[in-house]
Design brief:
This protein is an all-alpha fold. It has 15 helices and no strands. The chain has one domain.
Length: 293
Amino acid sequence: MLRGLCMGAADVVPGVSGGTIALLLGIYDRLIDSVRNGSRSLGLLLRGDLRGSLTRARSVEWAFLLPLLIGVAVAVTALAGPIEAGLANHPESMAGLFLGLVLASILIARRIPDSWTTGGVGLMAAVAVALFVALDWQAGPVADPSAPALFVSGMVAICAMILPGISGAFLLLMLGMYSHVLGAVDDRMLGDLALFGLGAVTGLALFSTLLGRLLDRHHDLVLAALIGLMVGSLRVLWPWPNGVGVIERDSTEVVSGASLDWPTASEMPVPLLLAVAAMVVVLGLDSLARRRS
């Protein structure tokens, strides 16, 4: 549940990914495997194969998955407001803090692949550059999205749960759907939330199966690509000029978090100190955990 709390806290921040936290905490493969088996069980049930569905459901690590999901839900509910307020009131400082956390995560994650090959390094670099460039694109807010748009947005946003470096909140920001989804949650727009949730379930089922197969067959290369996503996502967390990108709920203006600028001398100290402090804490905890193990 504590791991789920960490993942949920990350998922509410545009630019930070719950998948990054799962990879950092060493539960990534177990999460993908459990989600994949659960998706297969649901697929068998929808086809009328009750016995096959129950058999596949027994392969899910329920004692691991359910507390994790409860932790995610609790964190999203409890922390969304404070974190959103921090992003709105202190965007550069919050971006510096998250930048340090993700930098430390990258340094830790580099040890996860069993071995680094030239191909793995090249793939990591290519993915990082591609994401860095792609994050420059951003759409304006969509005031009244159609049903297909809500469904597709749910499919896209759920990638944050299983892809390190990809933030569901920022993907919604890029699609122009962030403001509407926040409003749907606050105003209990059940129809819109149902379409979004159906898309999320569909995307999770399809993508977890694909990613699980790739991990089985090309484990180290897939991990190298995932680390590349983490590196590329640093563009969103660069504190200047705007901090992490956020759309104000009642505003029609997009505040881009992917634009880059160099700070003045007076703007630099606080975000920089927070980034360094976050790195020191995370790397220190990792070092302590490795010594004890």
